[in-house]
Amino acid sequence: MLYTEESVRCNIRSRDGKRVFFLGKNDKLTSAARDYLQKERIAILPAEEARPERYRLLWGGYTEEKPEHMTHLDGITLAPKTHPRIVFRGKLDSLEARLIACRLEAPEFDRELGEILAYTRRLLRCEVLGEPVEEGTLLGMTEQELRCRSHFPQDYYGQTHFMPEAADGPVMAQLNLARCAAREAELAAAAAFTGPDGQVTRLDLIRAMNRLSSAIYLLMIRQKRKEGSS
Fold first, then answer.
1. Which of 15, 88, 99, 187 is the most exposed place for a label (fewest CB within 10 A)?
2. How far apart are CA 128 and CA 110, in angstroms?
3. What contacts 39, CB < 8 A, 6 or more positions away?
């Protein structure tokens, strides 16, 4: 297999608290992929080292085999598939699928949806590897700008809040499904990273998920305004 920079980014793993990339004996890296790994100081390890000799269990102890009802919480720790963090990852997978379907239905928003999809995948990597979510922009807007525009669309787009209907067409329906998937993932993040005492352990991820749903909602606002002016 030939790994591009994008596919390498999607397959970074964590080992002993450090980012690593496992490369098979017959696999290759593009120049851009190798440059990325070197720049980020990510070690390239043989693929046969990917499987640990034994797995650490979340509640303590070890096992030499991975039970079917469990999955990786990190590189060596196993957790039940019902663990809130695993549920959150599943919701991110569903959101990715919705965004891909939406790109097929709404090519006029392909650039924006592609950026949102890449951002979603970046959040998944940050969660799995325990990396902080870096501050930046989404659709050219900061978190505060996204919040203001999604709360007061009339001021920025000349379009009030609305409830989507079947008459709004298939593009709106797909955008709304993506927005709902983003909201479900946001709620799953809140459940995964809020302790019984109400303390939040990954506020960066929860805030980032809120940005996602706001960004998709603004695409719905733009679509509604477009349909209203046609």
1. 187
2. 27
3. none
